[in-house]
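Reading group handout, session on sequence-to-structure problems. Before we discuss, look at one worked example. The prompt was deliberately terse, the way you'd type it at a terminal:

> structure 1-deoxy-11-beta-hydroxypentalenate dehydrogenase

The input record follows.
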Amino acid sequence: MELKDKIIVITGAASGIGKAMAIRFAAEGAKKVVCVDLNKEGAQAVANEIDGVAFGVNVGVEQEIADMIDAVENDIGPIDLFCSNAGILIAGGMEVPNEDWQRIWDINVMAHVWAARHLVPRMTERGGGYLLNTASAAGLLNQVGCAPYGVTKHAAVAVAEWLAMSHGDDGIKVSVLCPQAVRSEMTRGHEDSVAALDGLLEAEPVAEACLETIRNETFLVLPHPQVLEYMRKKTENYDRWIGGMRKLHRMYGDRRNPQGNVS
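And the output record:
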């Protein structure tokens, strides 16, 4: 898919990866970029920069996603590309309270489900569309010190896989973004976390990687290319891989440092 003259929605667009995608996709000649964020003022500031439109939305609430999709489709036009990018991080393990598990589940997983629920039937009816879901390298490799994050990002990858295999014949293209650490407010002060062992990327090259993936209509977006090799090592010898992760846990697990690769 080329983005020229397309209508694009990006959640988590007030900062980080979402902001970088909004600016980059607008530069490609998108017809309109819709900037969505819980921080409405931040989303509006980005929208003002690119002649876009802003919505204040809590993606952890299905009705707010549904209402935003309705408004865009009715007032702006049919959505060609929906970037379900917003996410949060909660550190800790099994001791994390139930309410925090539920909150991160709703934002990191169900927001993808709800966007697809309310958009895929419309896209299918008009012959196709594109979904770009932000997960994380943690969704492929897990995350030391952050069980809720690792678990929900695994689920986010599974949602994208299911959509791709179940709706590909309907003309729905799906990609999933799985970076390691990306510089953002979430990584500020945690630049030495385990997720940054392979380097801390700026948001702009991540957005560029997303653009290239959308253009080629491939599934995985890996701004840190070494993640692919880690995946191969994981599947080649699971026990050895877990042994390596235990070593990382001994080195980093007690720090409770956030991964910081969400927008």
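Points for discussion. First: The first strand starts at residue 7 and ends at 11. Second: The radius of gyration is 18 Å.
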